[in-house]
## 1
Amino acid sequence: MSAPAIVARGLSRRFGDFTAVDRVSFEVEQGEIFGYLGANGAGKSTTIRMLIGLLAPSGGSATVAGHDIATAPDAVKASIGYMSQKFSLYLDLPVMENLLFFGAAYGLEGRALRLRAEELLEQVDLGGQGHLTTGDLPGGLRQRLALASSLIHRPRLVFLDEPTAGVDPVARRVFWRLIRELAAQGTTVFVTTHYLDEAEYCRRIGLMVDGRLVALDTPAGLKRTWVPDRVLVARGRGLAAAAEALRRTPGVQAVAPFGAALHLRVDAARLDGPAVAAALAAAGAVAPEVEEAAPTLEDVFLAVVDRGGQAVAP
Amino acid sequence: MPPAVLTPGGAAIEARGLVRRFGAVEALAGLTFRVERGELYGLIGPDGAGKTTAIRAVAGLLEPDQGEARVLGLDPLRDPAVRERLGLMPQQYSLYRDLTVGENLQFFARLSALPRAVFRERSERLLGITRLAPFTGRRADQLSGGMYKKLALACALLHQPEVLLLDEPTNGVDPVSRRELWALLHEFVEGGMAVVISTPYMDEAERCHRVGLVHRGRLLLEGAPEKLLAAYQAEGHPHPAFEELFIHEIEGAAA
């Protein structure tokens, strides 16, 4: 067994009297795609900034790629790649120049650097496009270039902080294929995202609420633990008006409008599809049809946050 | 198609044959769509499809080379009355970075002359929905990207206009806040507001009453999400997700 790529033990960070990260402990295996989820302000980016050696912890410890973040932050920085929420590329420079610039910042030079840059452009499907002006690239290609520039020094571990925010579905699909290829070659990927369909690609997911890591498991494991409820989709007319009455029905956990439909989470022991259809009809909906749906990671996320991170009693 | 009669009693938004070029790039190539009062309309499409340009044209921030836009029957380029009845949240929303969350809300409330009691009730509600209540004392430049976006959205929603244009308002916003914001938008449209929202999130596209898939400056497909999905399924794609439909249409158009 190789040593874990990341080991965090009771990692904490306070800003004045605000605790942004509160005694977080976890390990990430080498070659694993590890998803880090949480609401805005839950402490995800602060955790990353500590792990990549940019911010000193107020408490606890962590080793990243074998280096202690407190005593060897520079060794950490040299051995990891980082793509931030607002990735910094020089928009007025050609694509290739951006890669050469980041390579030079890591001490690479000459022919070796140019070969590495060309190899990376191929790897992220930008082969032969090194001459284009970066600012002229559509968002999805720019994002792949930012990924390439975080990989220029061949790090064994990369941190991607919301890499796909605002990127369209076609580009996101390509990006995730690249991520999976990277992991298949042994690179560890630590990624944050608000797209929960993407989080399905992760081997394991950590979920943060108010600075604490409250859940850590595979996507399937999280669904089993956190959504014992039944997930239903209701269709029909007059649902919007009936939704309010449904919210007050015992056993109904959550009601959310979804286009013309309603998405519901109900206590499986108390309610099923026919019972909900009857309740909707009684509240004025016309011919409601209710069918069961598989829980998604969004249901997990909402359930965890609703319960303030308190796990359900088994 | 006969020209539609643009009357104040008609559609909330009417965009007809919008064309706009930027140099060699045709950002809008004859875009036509219509949004009724009480309707939540989604503009979806890949990067560079023309969604932002369309929203700017409807808001009267940009003059089309051809075609015209009407908001509540009024010309957004020339009629100053549109301003008070239309709300816009652009992608790059400017807040005062040296003011706190609470101060920014107060400032925007004052701009739209919101009565104090109304402001108190609405800002409390919006702070709850956006989960920014614990951060009211934090300066805007100290917020994360998603939190900044949520504050911008709260500021844009304060004055509850009749027509609301939102350009990718939820990029970087977490799933809990996104779901609550969508519940709020549904509440607004039930009250008669017309909302146009552009989004790259396909699960959000499914939450709209109707969507228009924009590609290369014109509509590729338009309709209620469940009807579009049913039609796609009838073509022999079992259990399609909206994302697959999107990719199928865009790739079909590129071929």
## 2
Amino acid sequence: MQKNSKQLEKKCKIGIVVFPGSNCDRDVHSVLNNVLKVDADLVWHTSDNILQYDAVVIPGGFSYGDRLRAGIIAAHSPIVGKIKQMAKDGAPILGICNGFQVLVESCLLPGALMMNDSLNFVCRWTTLMVDNNKTPFTNCFSQHETFQIPVAHGQGRYIADKKTLQDLEKNNQVVLRYSDDDPNGSSHLIAAICNPQGNVMGLMPHPERASESILSPGRSTNKAILIFKSLISYLTNSNNILYHRKNKR
Amino acid sequence: MSILTGQEFSYLTRKLKRRPNSVEIDIVGVEWSEHCSYKSSKKYIRLLPMTGPRVIIAAGHDAAALDVGDGYVISVHIESHNHPSAIEPYGGAATGVGGVIRDIISIGTRPIAILDALRFGPIRARARNADTNSKSKWLLKNVVSGIGDYGNCIGVPTVGGEVEFDPSFEDYCLVDVASIGIARKEHIIPSKVDNDDLIILAGGSTGRDGIHGASFASAILDDEENRSAVQIPDPFLEKLLLEATIEAVEHGCIKAMKDLGGGGLSCCLSEAADNLKKQFEIELENVHTKHHDMSPAEIMMSESQERMLYITDRSKLQKLILIFDKYEIRYSIIGKVKDGSEVVIRFRGKIVASLPSNIFAHAPLLDRPIKRPRYLDRVNNSNNKKKKKKNEKNKTYFDLPKDITNINEVLLQMLSNPTIANKRWVYRQYDHEVGLRTIVKPGCGDASVLRLENGKFISVKLDGNSKHCYLDPYKGTLGCISESCRNVICTGAEPIGIVDHLQFASPEDPEVFWTFVQSINAIKDYCNYMNIPVVGGKVSFYNETSNGPIKPSPVIGSIGIIEKESWITDSHLRHGDSIFIIGFTCDEMGGSEYYEYFHNITGGVVPHVNLASDKINAKAMLQLIKNDLVGFVHDCSKGGLGIALAEMAIEGQIGITIDLNCVPNSCSRLDNLVFSESHSRFIFGTSQPVEVIRMLSKLKRLSFAKIGNADKHNENVIFRNTGRRSSAEADAVTVVVDIPLKKLAKTINAIEEIMNKL
């Protein structure tokens, strides 16, 4: 059994989608490969092999220079069409920062991300609280656990109509919330949401920047790495991966 | 806009042995502008020490490169974009970032950090009228968004810098941007080309934007009709160009490259041909342009942004084109390399210009007259009784301030001085963490510390002080270098190189030019004494408006290396720490924020850097750090001891009690002791005071003392004075300062308060 799960761990592969203008792709790649020692590849947006991956990360940055609206051009690219299919099949899809914006623009997640209430770009550390620890991205946290993580965005204020917000709350789709100081004015202090099935999550803060203690203020904490660890633990749990692989066929 | 001077025209005619045609006059005019040719400054810059064991590419190229061991090199460059930023702050500042990033790319290194040093007119109260005040705020707001939007988009973190406010920058601003890059040594571009290699121009289309930008930056800014000389930023294209170039470098597709900046193709082609010692045959019709009807001269002079020139071997052309196609970058093959020494420019097959590159790229150097400025007599004479007799006829002295008794209140006002207040409003608009390298972040230490691939760290900081440099350009510049080196030392780093950015008004004014020469002498003296090479620099002249010249404003960037992670100092004071000072405090109040901001006095003795003690103090500090004897270390500079201590308490959210009487000093007044900006001082916290004293006592000619304690149960910042300083004071213990931490922490957010009200 032990041997079996290790073999699966080796086999689990994560694809990091790179659009023109993505700029946190190499950071996510470095955390997954060098810190967590899992197999992760950078996948250029025109390549047609995204379906071979067990999970997809859409990293932060300024895809297509944020032209028209953050995330919207990438949301209409062919690779996102394939990612939508993977999402439907149950593969975990994680969108970070600009990746969250892409997920919202491609309707994989509801709502919208608007200009911060300060009207300025904001780059600083804040504290998040886990509101749902039953997702593939948070299963290593305990419920209501708090952790430090940085944000860096101009358009990170999550909004949605009343009905959508009610549904998100009712279905436990609010995964992470800003705990005391909210950097952008998001509705319901939302920092991350998932789809009703829980396999697609978008979050504004940057877990890859808080996955090594040396990178945190005071060089003391790296709890945010649990987001990636949760994903790996989900993928290496034989039931989940077999389920997904079955669907992929 | 006049281009070549009469003298330059006859020099060119003599060298060519014929009359230059109109295209040649235009393109040589751009290349020979002050901005591109350094014709006033080159003679002096050559005096600076530029070599050292780590220097792989010395100053004078697009960027310099330093060996950091284990097969890695870092590159560094600094640029300014003052003229454009003063009239179109957003675009001017953004294209400034773009330019310096391309310089880093040009030698084959990947940019990993941006730093910015900014100077504006006052943004509050003390400005002469509210009008200029709101203009300064407008400039600050837009310069910061310009830098932020560009740097954030291309994914290079803006990790540090500084901001200074001074009335001499009213209606103007200085925007300096430095960048650091990294690469494996073998990826540094060889810059050797052969016959028949191809010359390729890639990136943005060449348009009419920014024509005469370089000549525009080589004249005084008199009105705002020059908007067309400002270029348009496109960070998305720059990001693509960056990734494509690095990919091409890693595939060995590039034999030489150069970025296009001020002076456009004229400057780029002439300098590249001259450096490579080859002939360039160029066909301008191949250049992809924004407009169909551009003349050859316009194509040559355009300063359209986000363009790079590559020289490649024919065998690598297919690979290079695949890379351009992947990133959807436009390119044109504009010519080829030949044996010879001319730059031959054709347009639709016809030769429009043909110039020997060694003439084209080298303007005749000038011998500018120098004269000590008269204002120095005025600002150096204080109205004290002894001197008054000597200077009875001279009415242009300044009055010393009255003795201040309420230092508590002064300290609060000084903390809310925008030059001193925290710069959170600025750096939070910059993504300072992308890249996973920023270990010491802006606001958390005296310099920014970045992680390198080889397990080492570099520490970087920019510093300037126009107030000191105005009153004494020599001492002021020495101070800037000392401060900048001190800041990287505070993080645990050993300085390995500096870059200088020398910003002055018109070099044609002998008094201005004298201040420039003084600055150069200071850099030369400091770097020779400390054995630190100058690895890059830039000169920017003609920084003046109809209000007059700016104060001399050299900005110094220091790069330090930290060999071990454990040497990186703590980010804050800890409970129970003893607080020590290294260095000596004197009555050096000239140009201090206390005199200038609080008393509105311009004058007095500028702090002098004693090179010997500067070296000893730095050595002592590094010795303590490497022996793991210190926690948090802070430099003592703008605002003096009082501000440095208040900042340490605020940063650590911990109360401190200081005995001023313990501070080694020769000050005649208590306010001078608290606010003097004497150099070469370090303040630090330690949990091992006995060992610190033991180690420091062994060093000769070192001033140091334990001056207080940090205590988490104390919620105030308290300065006591147990001794007697003047006859007016009692012998008993006097409390000089006693302010709750919370109040201090609120006061130091002054910039945020001012800017959020806009």
